[in-house]
Every structure is written in structure tokens, then in C-alpha cells.
UniProtKB/TrEMBL annotation:
Residues 332-454 form the 3-octaprenyl-4-hydroxybenzoate carboxy-lyase-like C-terminal domain. It comes from Roseisolibacter agri. Residues 126-326 form the 3-octaprenyl-4-hydroxybenzoate carboxy-lyase-like Rift-related domain. Pfam families: UbiD, UbiD_C, UbiD_N. One of its GO terms (biological process) is ubiquinone biosynthetic process. Gene3D superfamilies: Single helix bin, UbiD C-terminal domain-like. This is 3-octaprenyl-4-hydroxybenzoate carboxy-lyase. GO terms for cellular component: cytosol. Residues 11-90 form the 3-octaprenyl-4-hydroxybenzoate carboxy-lyase-like N-terminal domain. PANTHER family: 3-OCTAPRENYL-4-HYDROXYBENZOATE CARBOXY-LYASE-RELATED, FERULIC ACID DECARBOXYLASE 1. Belongs to the UbiD family. GO terms for molecular function: 4-hydroxy-3-polyprenylbenzoate decarboxylase activity.
Length: 490
């Protein structure tokens, strides 16, 4: 069943027993975050939470419930994308990329289903009265204080809209971008847009500033889960996230024109903040913010968004998330990206067998990669290829291992790596871009990276000793013990 709305997703989570409703009064400032943080650190990610009695800054009860930790387990992440396990989408991508035209008429006809599937992906813009515009605030009606926007951490610069889909367009080519950027509430009708310099939305802003043109922007909160996830996915700049969401859903995303902006928004969205950025205005202070590294990111200058309309469903549910010291909900969103995009990574680095970004590394700080090693120096070739691949260029530490190592098992990966390396011989350092949030780098967004070759060493790599075998019991003994195991009382 396709999940078209946030309500569909919440109902599906409830059916599998992973939703917990909280009726006790909870403040949107700090208290909600503290509860969600404790739950998200429970084994398996804890349950999704629906807060039904949220207290606003003035002490009044919000008319809108708040949903959080919706994507915060492997099961819910797969559910959100309509699969039993996330690698299913990776296999679909592999099949789509393997479009070699076969010989013979029957072979060519066999390709039609895959080609027709591709044709279904583009979003469809409809006219009419969409659910996302059942309520419309304009002008003086706009008051963000009426929404349960949470303040996550004590030293945050203010309340933050976090689980966003920020929509903008390339002014020259008209290509849409949907990015998940945090948004700080500045007042009742103004917010600050935090898009880091390497993000597509920031590039759109730079282009609009060069033209001296006002930039329309829409901030969507709550929609079908595939579209929400797609906003976080590291797609190439020319790929519309709603097309990717259609691929994941196996059904096009329905859009409608915004009320005051020349942009399209999801037909079934819960909440839309419409507005504009004037590039002639001075940037505003945004932050500090308790970030996914587990540390506060410092305040910096970012564009101000003036809101021209707020539209929503009559029975709107406000969706949000928090980040901080891992593991948290964002780990599961990142894990989905890891599994779905593995086939695309293999296109340029075919020797890669698998890779994993453990929660402790905050995505960019640590990446384990297993390869099918065939020749000397191949581990370093893979390091260089990955450091030249999109957002993987921000990876601080890359550990390359042999193909039989399960890199998704962090304990096994470190066991293999720490046994297989001579630190001086097998470690390389290089310079390059680093994540904006890296507070340890020698300069803002620039610093060093470390690559560790934890593969078996070949004679050409200067290794002349015998490489030992891994200890493993023989198959016959394993089978014999398997047979007697139920009788052992263990």
C-alpha cells in the first residue's frame, strides 16, 4: 500500500506496534526533545512518538499534535519506503542501470516494463483544492508562535523547524531542489534558512543574488514519507527529489501550486511555510544549534526568509525530529541512503562490495568499505575515488577492508582492521573539504583526512611474511553441535 500522507505513515506505524501516544502535557521547549532523545537511544531506536498535549511558549495547549522519531528504527525506515528491507531499492536501481539492449524482438520487448516504470516517476501537478491548503494564513494572520515548533537544546538560538522539505528552483534552468535544511524561527513571520555552502539550495541562492532577484522558497513539514526521506538524500543537483520519491513509492508524487510562490508543493502536505529571500538584505545570525555531531554548531550568518503565507490541513499533525549525540533518528535516514545508493557508488568504484557509516561517526567521520582486492595499491585507489565522490568527499576517516569482512558489523570491522594494519605503513593522510559542522578541523570546512588500508597485504606492497588464516570451526563439528544444541540447556 502506498503511503500518501503523514497520517497514512503514522497509522501504518501504529499497526505494526511501533507507535506510542503521549497524552501527558509536555512543553515544546526542551521537554519534548528530552523525552524523544531518551526513547531514540533505546535498543533498536525506540518507538515513534505522538505527543497529543503539547504546551506552547505561552503555556497554552497546541491544537496540533507533534510526531517525532517516525523514521527511528530499521523497520519503520523500510516501512516508510514500502519495502521489507532497504536493499530492495538498491537492487531496483541496479536493474534499471543494466539497460543493455538485448538482441532480437522478444529481448527488446522484455525491456518495456522497466522503461515504462521510469516513465511513471515524474510528479504530477494538479489544480483544485488540496488538503495542504485547507487553512491559509496571510499577512497579519501569520503567527509561528501558534505552531508547536520545538526548541531542542538549552543553548539553541531559538525554536527550530527540523524535519523540512525546503523547495527552491534553479533560476536559469528551472530545475527544482528539495533539501532537508534546518530553519530557525526568528519571529512570528520570519525564519533563518540554514543551508550549508555545498548544498544545492545555497547554490540557487547565490545565483539569485548574482541576478539581484528575489528568491521564492517553500518550507514543507509533513508529507508522504518517501518524499520526506528524498529531501535528505544526496542526489545530484540535476535530479528532482520528487522524481526520486516517485521511484521509491512506485507512484508519482502529487503536487499543487503554492498560494503565494511560483513553486509546487506536495498536495497532501501537513504544513507549508511560503515565503521569499531578498538577496539584497543583510544575512542574519542563525544558531547556535545542538547538531548531529553531539556538539553545538556555532552561530553564523544565513539568509532570512520572509513568510507570505502559511497553509495547512485542518487536522494538521506537526512532524519534527531532533539531532544530537548519536544514535538518533537521523542515523536511520542516513542508513537508508547508504543502502539505496550503494549501486550508484559501485558504478564508479566497481570493486566495492559494501560500505557502512556507523552512528558513532556521525555519517562523515567514519566510513568502513569492503572491496574485492585484486592488485597492490587498490585500497588507496578506492580511498581517492571515494574522496572525489559527492558528499563522500567530506569523509574524515576511511577504513578499507577485504570483501569477506561484514562492514555493517562495527565490532567485526574494527577487529579485522586493528589486526590487519601496521599503523605507519598502512595509514595515509590527505587534505580536502570537511563538513561545515566539523569543529576540530584546522579551518572552517577545510582539513585533513585519514585513510587506513586494512586489507591483506600483497608481496608487491612489501609484505613478505605469511598471512595467517582466520580461526574457524570445521563444518562437520558445527553440524554435530547444532544437532545437540537443544539438549544442552543453554
Amino acid at each position: 500500500m502506498t503511503l500518501d500522507t503523514l497520517s497514512d505513515f503514522i497509522a501504518a506505524i501504529d499497526r505494526i506496534g511501533e507507535l506510542h501516544r503521549i497524552t501527558h502535557p509536555v512543553r515544546a521547549r526542551l521537554e519534548l526533545c528530552e523525552i524523544a532523545d531518551r526513547v531514540s537511544k533505546m535498543p533498536g531506536g525506540g518507538k515513534a512518538l505522538l505527543f497529543e498535549h503539547v504546551l506552547l511558549a505561552d503555556g497554552s495547549r497546541s491544537p496540533y499534535p507533534v510526531a517525532i522519531n517516525l523514521f527511528g528504527s530499521m523497520r519503520r525506515m523500510a516501512l516508510s519506503l514500502g519495502v521489507q528491507e532497504l536493499d530492495e531499492h538498491g537492487r531496483r536501481i541496479t536493474e534499471m542501470m543494466d539497460l543493455k539492449v538485448p538482441d532480437g524482438l522478444l529481448g527488446k520487448l522484455s525491456m518495456l516494463p522497466r522503461l515504462l516504470e521510469v516513465a511513471k516517476f515524474p510528479p504530477r501537478t494538479k489544480s483544485g483544492s488540496p488538503p495542504c491548503q485547507e487553512v491559509v494564513w496571510r499577512g497579519d494572520e501569520i503567527d509561528l508562535d501558534r505552531l508547536p515548533i520545538i526548541t531542542c537544546w538549552p543553548e539553541d538560538g531559538g525554536p527550530y523547524v527540523t524535519l523540512t522539505m525546503c523547495i527552491s528552483k534553479d533560476p536559469a534552468r528551472g530545475i527544482r531542489n528539495v533539501g532537508m535544511y534546518r530553519v530557525q524561527q526568528l519571529g512570528t513571520r520570519e525564519v533563518a534558512m540554514h543551508w550549508q555552502r555545498h548544498k544545492t539550495g545555497a547554490e540557487h541562492f547565490r545565483q539569485m543574488a548574482e541576478r539581484g532577484e528575489t528568491m521564492p522558497v517553500c518550507i514543507v513539514v509533513g508529507a508522504d514519507p518517501a518524499s520526506v526521506y528524498s529531501a535528505s538524500a544526496p542526489l545530484p543537483p540535476g535530479i528532482d527529489e520528487f522524481i526520486f520519491a516517485g521511484f521509491l513509492r512506485r507512484e508519482p508524487v502529487k503536487l499543487v501550486k503554492a498560494v503565494t510562490c511560483d513553486l509546487e508543493v506536495p498536495w497532501d502536505a501537513e504544513l507549508v511555510l511560503e515565503g521569499y529571500i531578498d538577496p539584497r538584505e543583510a544575512l542574519v545570525v542563525e544558531g547556535p544549534f545542538g547538531d548531529h555531531t553531539g556538539f553545538y554548531s556555532e552561530a553564523d550568518l544565513y539568509p532570512k526568509v520572509h513568510l507570505t503565507a502559511v497553509t495547512m490541513r485542518k487536522a494538521m499533525t506537526y512532524a519534527t525530529t531532533i539531532v544530537g549525540r548519536p544514535p538518533m533518528e537521523d542515523f536511520y535516514l542516513g542508513h537508508a541512503t547508504e543502502r539505496i545508493f550503494l549501486p550508484l557508488l559501485k558504478l564508479t568504484v566497481p570493486e566495492i562490495v559494501d560500505y557502512h557509516m556507523p552512528a558513532e561517526g556521525g555519517f562523515h567521520n567514519l566510513v568502513f568499505v569492503s572491496i574485492d582486492k585484486k592488485y597492490p595499491g587498490q585500497a588507496y585507489k578506492v580511498m581517492n575515488a571515494l574522496w572525489g565522490a559527492g558528499l563522500m568527499s567530506l569523509a574524515k576517516v576511511l577504513v578499507v577492508l577485504d570483501k569477506e569482512v561484514d562492514v555493517r558489523n562495527v565490532q567485526e570491522a574494527w577487529w579485522a582492521a586493528l589486526n590487519n594494519i601496521d599503523p605507519e605503513r598502512d595509514t595515509r593522510f590527505t587534505m580536502g573539504p570537511v563538513d561545515v559542522l566539523d569543529h576540530a578541523s584546522r579551518a572552517f570546512t577545510y582539513g585533513s583526512k585519514m585513510g587506513i588500508d586494512a586489507t591483506r597485504k600483497l608481496p608487491e606492497e612489501g609484505f613478505t611474511r605469511n598471512w595467517p588464516k582466520v580461526i574457524e570451526m570445521d563444518a562437520a563439528t558445527k553440524a554435530a553441535v547444532d544437532a545437540m544444541w537443544p539438549k544442552l540447556g543453554l
